[in-house]
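User: Look at the shape:
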Amino acid sequence: MSARQWPLWTLVGIAVAVFVAANAHLVYIAVASDPGCVSHLKTAGLGEGQYRAAKSAC
């Protein structure tokens, strides 16, 4: 390889490592976080904008 190509491959490797680390962090946060219970309708609402949880965990 020429002297010009090694910095390019180094930067590509660093960019890939940062991308993988960021995605691993997002997956970790998604799995580890627990938003807890929020207030919601327990029965189906008849009005517009009244939604309920499909399967309540509370």
The two ends are 60 Å apart (CA to CA). Helices lie at 5-32.
